[in-house]
Amino acid sequence: MAFKEIDLNMGPQHPSTHGVLRLKLSVDNEVVLRVEPVLGYLHRGMEKLWENLTYKQIVPLTDRLDYLASLSNNLGYVLAVEKLAGIEVPKRAQYIRVVLAELQRLASHLAWAGFMANDIGAMTVLLYGFEAREDVLDIFEEYCGARLTVHGIRIGGVVHDLDAALVSRIRAVLKAIPKRLQDIRTLLDENRIWKERTVGVGLITAGDAVGYGLTGPALRASGVEWDMRKDIPYSSYGDFAFDVPLGQNSDVYDRYIVRLEEICQSIRIVGQALDGLPSGEFSAKVPRVLKVPPGEVFHTIEAPKGVLGFYVKSNGTDKPERVKMKSPSFINLQSLERMCIGHLFSDVVGILGSLDIVLGEIDK
Amino acid sequence: MNRLGRFLKSFFLVDILQGLWVTLRIYFSPKVTVQYPEQIKEPAPRFRGILRLHRDERGEPLCIACKACQRACGTNCFDIEGKKGEGAKVMRPVKFDWTLERCSFCGFCVEVCPTNAIRFSREFRLTGLDRAGLLFDLPDMYLAGEDLQKHLCAGCRRGG
Question: Distances in Å between the alpha carbon of A97 and those of A136, A190, A274?
Fold first, then answer.
């Protein structure tokens, strides 16, 4: 058949773009030649908005960035401000933060497994993944009253203390999740349709992955060991023993395996944090009107999607002069073209899903 | 042997059958879904629902119109005016407007309130048919339960 290049729009209203993302695809019959992501359909002007709010008022807005992992966003921003203001966070608060952030990673990865499988055609996994995620969201509701936009981590500490009832509830949920995980793995790991669609799809070499600035599970699936929790520990992550799962083939299947392994490691970390929960205050004393000394700071954490960074510049008042966010989804999306070229059109859905993007974080 | 094993596994659809066994097992396990309008899952005690003002046990309003919530709010939900009555010791609000459509349920107002007057209710049904229902003024802030629903929804207001 004669070569004919066709431009094709995928999105902004498309079930597999995980929001309002538009992909301009150039295809030759079914083979993808170029992919150009078009962003900005969900732009809310967050960074400008933050310049008009006080340091404390920004925290609930960070929930709305990566809305599948709101506590990780809270943590990233709060740690940056605390570093700049020189606030010492009590040990107990740091441990509770670890518990919350890891539970959030669990919820995010479980939701990802469901969405990803649903994109490829295995709808059952979506239901199982969401059932397990529901238990985690119930913990958040019990802890601070909200499920999705949690706003549980505040400047100086956390919003509530972890009481014994909640600790035992978290333990019960953690005990139930591996069973559900095993169900998902039985359905997908050896499934021939799943393997046909994922093994050898969306390849990117380790060098390219680093060059594109890919972070998070997608980078670790390429065999690069880079985890902020291990390499630059924050919030007492150095106290816990856990492994960083790595992949070898850097395809969609390895990203899936890495994420599911990370869930197991998160369960390990939460268990250790609950066992060694130190006594003391759950929040430092923070003045009601928080004035941060002039200066600038950049702080990165390991969010479920990748390395999340916040740059905060202060001019000495109670409002920041500039807050810039390095969002993992935005940077991971840039390597999409590199992964898609030469693959079939239908594989774009799988590759995009394997990057685990959230549009709230990309467009800010 | 390894190749033969792989061939047999793939020929007898072992992977598919294992998956079907999982779905079959869960098909006969108890259901986890809640049929919403008939069954209601109770929100947690700390649930952040519609904001309400409270009175003390003698029926006196707890709010002293200090506007701490107004200052703490990041989305300008509140419009409060206070007045000190003749011979009264503390201020009382004469105007207390709360806009539900602007609220992000972050909880700052509840945390800063010195008299614990403003608290979250566990009302999670936030739907209204017009914007009038989403604006709460001083008497509306004391509504509870079904009255709250009537206030929110224009259909209920007309019917009731």
Answer: 15, 36, 11
